[in-house]
Each structure stands twice: as structure tokens, then as C-alpha cells.
TrEMBL record:
It is found in: Nucleus. It comes from Rhynocoris fuscipes. Its main location: nucleus. This is DNA polymerase delta small subunit. Residues 1-132 form the DNA polymerase delta subunit OB-fold domain. One of its GO terms (cellular component) is delta DNA polymerase complex. Pfam families: DNA_pol_D_N, DNA_pol_E_B.
Length: 424
């Protein structure tokens, strides 16, 4: 999969490298670094190499080491993050690998990133990095800049967790009434009548798993009766929404879907009431779709959470921004994130820059507006959104599809709702 990723992203990186460092900078394969017949390629001369970054991490999970540790008398500490000062960074192209040192912080990247590195090879065979660049999206969105219908809105939420919803039934009821126009003053109802779509970004049925000593031992709900009840509650909830608004439904890490990315849509047979409406749309995870001439893309959160385990990028918003700069939805797949074993293609490459780029199931709401330059004076803005878990925060996110302004709306017992303006 890394070979397919590098092959697909290399042309874009060559363009980015020449734009950043000039047309005359030599771009070489790793095999050419050791050739001494040409003075231009001798060690000590600056050049650009392009490949996939790999991290050697001594703390990363290893099944053989885990078995060995369990046989020891002294208990071993259970780790949730696998970063240490002894980590090493390697660049791999189609034929070889080389150890990388210098101005690229190893804790700011993860395995699977395709990068262009400017630097030189030292006498010990290591490559000393002076500067670097990443591929980013291959092109700006091909859709029109302005939506066809101004004043339309996208509502996003995640982590409804109907398996453990006893404390959030009233906030969910308030959310449904708010979307369908039964809650709020006339001005709010008029605004909500312009909701173009409701996106549910994963963990609809379940949002957690049982664990023991930091290890996941069961991702199922306690018994089949609880699962059936949760699915019925979810079906009733979706049926109410789909009567009045289009719903885009994505699976999440703990939903009844396949484990490997891309997760396939939740089966319509699970939701007999809601599936009667053509306004229910099942999506994959990660997912990319169009609404009101805006390109929307993102995941239910697994890629962003995994980046935090294998690097020092623990802020979800920064991790989300980084994946956009890297040009890849899930760079750690298939290394540490389960993924279908694609060989000739990589479906997670960001080809068109989305207008709205999201990640679901986070502890709090975060947002930012970033601009990416594509050269020749062409640039595009992207609204980044970390969608909070509704079960934990009672919060959804609303994005204006015309201006890309973003705000969160919170539902709580005793109050109608509280709205907080996001970063513009």
C-alpha cells in the first residue's frame, strides 16, 4: 500500500518541491545517493529525496513482546501512547531506505507520510534534513466556489451512543425537535428550515468498548437484547430526522460494521423505519460527499486518535490540520490502523481539497479556517471541524455553507439551547 501511495503522490510532491526550492534543485532516488561517478551526486551536495516516512518505535505494541512480558513475574506497565526519545526516522522509496536526521522533528510526524526532504547525505550514510515539504491535496475543489443556494446549513454530530443513552435521551429529544422545527423561536425555526443535511459521523449505536488493563477485550454491547434495543432507538431517531431533512450516516469505531478502514455503510436493514425514506444516505468511513456545491470530507475519528498515540500531535485540531497538509486521510493505515490491504491503489489520498474537513467523536468542539496555496496564484480555504461526542457534550456543530462560518449548539436540561460562535 505504501508503494501505491508513493507512486500516486510523487508527481504532486515533485511539483511542490520545485515550487518551494526552485526548478534547478536535483531530485534523486535513494540509490543515486551512493553513486560517486557524478560530482553532482557526491555526499555533501544538497538534493531532494522523496519517499515514505517510517518510524522505528521501541514502545509500539508487539505481539511477541507482549507474550514474553506476560510470562514475567513483575507486571509490565500498560501504555496508551508509544512515543520515546529513542525513536528513529527512516525514509523509504521504491528500492531502498535511509536513516533521516536534522530539522525534521520525529515526534511531529507518523509512519506513512509521503514527504520531500531537502538536505544532504553525511559520511555515515544518514540524510541530514534542512527543509521538507508535504504533498497536500492534489488540487483545489473542482466545484463552484459559491453554493447554489445561499444561506444553507450543514449540521454535524457524532457519538450518539444509543447503547448508553439513558442520560442523553432528553438532549437527543431536544436536538430532534430543534432540527425538525418544533423547538426555538421563529427566527431560529426559520434558520433551521434551511438545514441542507445532517451528518452523523460515527458511533451511532455504541461509542465505547470494555477494557482491562488498557487492552480492549470486547467491542460488543453486553448482550444481544441491549444491542437490539440500541438499534431500535437509533432507527426511531433516524426516522424522525429523515422525515424532514437529508441525513448522511457514517459508521464509527464501535458501530456494527467492519473493523478495517474504509468502513462500509451501516446496513439499511438495521433501520427499517428510517430506510423507508430516500433522505437517508449511508456513507463509508472515511467519507467524501457533496452538499450545496461544497465538498465535505472526513472520518469518524480513528485516524486522528491514532496519530496521537504514535506522535506528540495530541491536539485533535492540529492532527486534523496535519493530515490535510500531508494529503492523506489516514497516514498510519495499515501500519497501526487496521485497513483493507489495497495493493494497486490507496483510497485515502486527498485528491481534491475539501471545503469542510471534519473528524468525529472528540472530547470537545474545535475549529479553524486554513488556506492552502496550489501555485500560480490559486488558493482555497478549508473549514476544519473537530466534532464533539454528543453523548459526552450534548453538542452539535452548524456550518454555514455560504460563508463557512462555524458554531456549536449545546442542548441541556433546563435550558432551550446555548449557542457558541466558533472561530471564523
Amino acid at each position: 500500500m505504501y508503494t501505491a501511495r508513493l507512486s500516486k503522490m510523487k508527481d504532486n510532491l515533485v511539483k511542490k518541491a520545485k515550487l518551494k526550492w526552485g526548478e534547478n534543485i536535483p531530485i534523486k532516488r535513494l540509490a543515486e545517493l551512493t553513486e560517486t561517478s557524478d560530482v553532482e551526486f557526491e555526499a555533501g551536495n544538497k538534493c531532494v529525496i522523496i519517499g515514505t516516512l517510517l518510524k522505528n518505535q521501541e514502545l509500539r505494541p508487539n505481539i511477541l513482546k507482549q507474550i514474553s512480558d506476560e510470562l514475567m513475574i513483575l507486571p509490565q506497565p500498560k501504555l496508551m501512547r508509544f512515543v520515546s526519545d529513542n525513536d528513529e526516522l527512516v525514509l523509504e522509496d521504491e528500492l531502498q531506505r535511509i536513516r533521516v536526521i536534522g530539522n525534521l522533528d520525529i515526534h511531529s510526524v507518523v509512519t506513512g507520510i509521503v514527504a520531500a526532504l531537502l538536505g544532504r547525505q553525511d559520511d555515515t550514510g544518514k540524510f541530514i534534513v534542512d527543509e521538507y515539504c508535504f504533498a497536500g491535496p492534489e488540487s483545489p475543489s473542482l466545484l463552484k466556489i459559491e453554493p447554489a443556494q445561499p444561506g444553507r446549513y450543514l449540521v454535524m454530530l457524532s457519538g450518539l451512543d444509543f447503547a448508553h443513552t439513558s442520560e442523553s435521551l432528553l438532549p437527543l429529544r431536544m436536538f430532534t425537535d430543534w432540527v425538525t422545527g418544533w423547538l426555538g423561536d421563529p427566527s431560529e425555526q426559520h434558520k433551521n428550515s434551511k438545514i441542507a443535511l445532517v451528518l452523523i459521523a460515527g458511533n451511532l449505536v455504541n461509542a465505547s468498548s470494555d477494557s482491562k488493563d488498557g487492552k480492549i477485550i470486547n467491542t460488543d454491547i453486553n448482550n444481544s437484547a441491549d444491542l437490539l434495543t440500541a438499534v431500535k432507538l437509533a432507527d426511531n431517531f433516524l426516522a424522525e430526522l429523515t422525515e424532514t431533512v437529508h441525513v448522511e450516516l457514517m459508521p464509527g469505531e464501535f458501530d456494527p460494521s467492519n473493523l478495517t478502514l474504509p468502513q462500509q455503510p451501516l446496513h439499511y436493514k438495521m433501520f427499517p423505519k428510517a430506510s423507508e425514506f430516500s433522505s437517508l444516505h449511508g456513507g463509508t468511513n472515511p467519507h467524501c460527499f457533496q452538499v450545496e456545491n461544497r465538498l465535505v470530507a472526513g472520518s469518524s475519528g480513528q485516524p486522528i486518535h491514532d496519530i496521537g498515540r504514535y506522535s506528540n500531535i495530541t491536539d485533535p485540531l492540529l492532527a486534523l490540520k496535519s493530515t490535510l497538509e500531508w494529503g492523506h486521510f489516514a497516514p498510519t493505515a495499515p501500519d497501526s490502523l487496521p485497513s483493507y490491504p489495497f495493493y494497486d491503489e490507496d483510497p485515502f489520498i486527498i485528491e481534491e481539497q475539501p471545503h469542510i474537513y471534519f473528524s468525529g467523536n472528540h472530547d470537545k468542539f474545535q475549529t479553524d479556517l486554513v488556506t492552502i496555496e496550489h501555485g500560480n496564484g490559486i488558493s482555497q480555504k478549508t473549514r476544519l471541524v473537530c466534532i464533539p461526542s454528543f453523548h459526552k457534550t450534548r453538542t452539535c456543530v452548524v456550518v454555514d455553507l455560504t460563508t463557512l462560518d462555524c458554531e456549536k449548539v449545546s442542548f441541556s436540561v433546563g435550558e432551550l439551547f446555548i449557542s457558541y460562535k466558533g472561530h471564523s
